[in-house]
Design brief:
By secondary structure, this protein is of the alpha+beta class. The chain contains five helices and six strands; from the N terminus they run ββαββββαααα. Helices cover 28% and strands 23% of the residues.
């Protein structure tokens, strides 16, 4: 088993491979992480791991839509995560590459990262200025009938989008913009759907692409039926989240 140790960035959302993650980094422990990443030459990957925080635990105050940075006192890297921090996080996350790391005059950071590969969380070290984790990178297996399932998911996703036409939504409406590679389809749809974090986490850790697509097909049909039954759609941006399309 090949493992890697990387800085760990916990969020209250799920990052998928191929999806872009914009971050506004305010809290000191994550600022320290970004300063460390900046030591890596720009031509090399500046890798860190993103994991979703389990319900009821602390949230990193560093992404659009998350609580203000003053909401969580800075009490050291493991603050709020308990004596055994790994229990605070879901077991599968995503390795990210920070393509852009820009330090502002006030010492905060503007970061644009992209998810690359899934990874299983093996251990968490809270002894340094920021959390680090030992991870096992997970291969993406296609599974059975992934191609046919991807076609079905894309059709269902277009119907889902049509039902969301009254709400502000991500620009995924034209077929030409949608991919046809099954694993890319599975991650894109998982990120774009209006789903809670546990459901997105379930999709991330699916055993293979085909399994994820099957789950998504059921979710799309169910969610589309629910939206169809609503008298009107909320005016808020239903598909907004800390990740955006690559």
């Amino acid at each position: 088993m090949t493992t890697v140790r990387l800085p760990l960035f916990p969020l209250n959302s799920v990052l998928f491979p191929g999806l872009v993650l914009p971050l506004n980094v305010f809290e000191e422990r994550y600022r320290a992480m970004m300063r460390e990443l900046m030591k890596t030459p720009e031509e090399e990957p500046r890798r860190f791991a993103v994991v979703a925080i389990r319900d009821g635990h602390e949230v990193a105050t560093s992404a659009s839509g998350l609580p203000d940075q003053t909401a969580v006192p800075e009490r050291g890297p493991a603050a709020g995560f308990g004596e055994d921090p790994i229990k605070s996080f879901h077991g599968t996350g995503c390795v990210a590459d920070a393509a852009t790391v820009r330090e502002r005059a006030d010492g905060t950071f503007e970061v644009l990262a992209t998810g690359t590969t899934r990874a299983r969380l093996l251990s968490v070290d809270a002894s340094g200025p920021f959390l680090t984790a030992e991870l096992e990178e997970l291969p993406e297996e296609p599974g059975d009938e992934a191609g046919a399932l991807a076609e079905g998911v894309l059709r269902a996703f277009r119907q889902y989008q049509k039902r969301l036409a009254g709400a502000r939504e991500r620009s995924l409406s034209t077929g030409a913009d949608l991919p046809d590679e099954p694993s890319v389809v599975s991650y894109l749809v998982a990120a774009a759907m209006m789903l809670d974090t546990p459901t997105k986490q379930r999709l991330l850790q699916a055993p293979d692409t085909a399994s994820r697509l099957r789950d998504e097909l059921k979710l799309l049909r169910s969610e589309t039926a629910i939206i169809r039954s609503l008298p009107s759609l909320p005016s808020s941006d239903l598909t907004r989240g800390p990740t955006s399309l690559n």
